[in-house]
Specification:
Layout (H helix, E strand, L loop, with lengths): L9 E4 L3 E5 L4 H8 L3 H4 L8 H18 L3 E6 L5 E9 L11 E7 L8 H16 L4 E7 L3 H9 L3 E2 L17 E7 H7 L1
Parallel strand pairs: 5-6
Antiparallel strand pairs: 1-2, 2-3, 3-4, 4-5, 6-8, 7-8
GO molecular function: acyltransferase activity, transferring groups other than amino-acyl groups
Keywords: Transferase
Protein name: Protein N-acetyltransferase, RimJ/RimL family
Length: about 190
């Protein structure tokens, strides 16, 4: 199972997916499998390996300090890496809501339209509200990234124009960064 690791690393398991902690060496796997022009188009473009390593180091630190972070999304049937998903705190210096709980995901291109993102994110949302007592969650994207905000709507999230911000590290076509949110009470009512 190329993307799988020991059972202790598994954080969330769904019907078709395993979400496990990021480990040393996973940056090379993500670089090879997920770092494509199509997958990264609305995420600032293809990244250098050192940029992925830095994000992974940050996520491993989040897990060590807070018990949550981003995870590798493994397809149970094949053991292959099919995505990246998780929970962190908003840390973009331009965001008006730094410190809010933020969810996010990406799925490799040959696994698009199979429902993996929604399956993973429903599990992450449950994990955030039940295990980490998040009062509310946000997700960030751009107007251009319609599949992303459509998924946010499918998850029951609501558009929050008051949280929009410009991120100069993204191209003009991907600005402003827009946000959707979901409150714990709102989520509980939908359960």
């Amino acid at each position: 199972m190329p993307g799988a690791r020991k059972l202790a690393d598994i954080v969330i398991e769904t019907e078709r997916l395993i979400l496990r902690r990021i480990e040393e060496g996973d940056a090379a796997l993500q670089f090879a499998v997920l770092n494509t022009p199509a997958v990264m188009e609305c995420l600032g473009g293809v990244k250098e390996l050192h940029e992925i390593e830095a994000k992974h180091a940050k996520s491993m630190a989040w897990f060590a300090q807070h018990g949550f972070g981003f995870m590798m999304m493994i397809e149970k049937d094949t053991g292959e890496l099919v995505g990246h998903a998780g929970l962190k705190r908003v840390d973009n210096e331009n965001a008006p809501n730094q410190g809010d709980y933020e969810i996010g995901w990406l799925v490799r291109e040959d696994r698009w339209r199979r429902g993996y993102a929604v399956e993973a994110m429903r599990a992450v949302i449950d994990w955030a509200f039940t295990r980490h007592d998040a009062p509310h969650l946000v997700a960030l994207t751009s107007e251009r990234n319609e599949p992303s905000w459509r998924l946010m709507q499918k998850l029951g999230m609501e558009r929050r124009e008051d949280l929009d911000f410009v991120d100069p590290s993204y191209e003009a076509r991907d600005n402003p960064t827009i946000q959707y949110s979901l409150g714990q009470e709102q989520w509980e009512k939908s359960q």
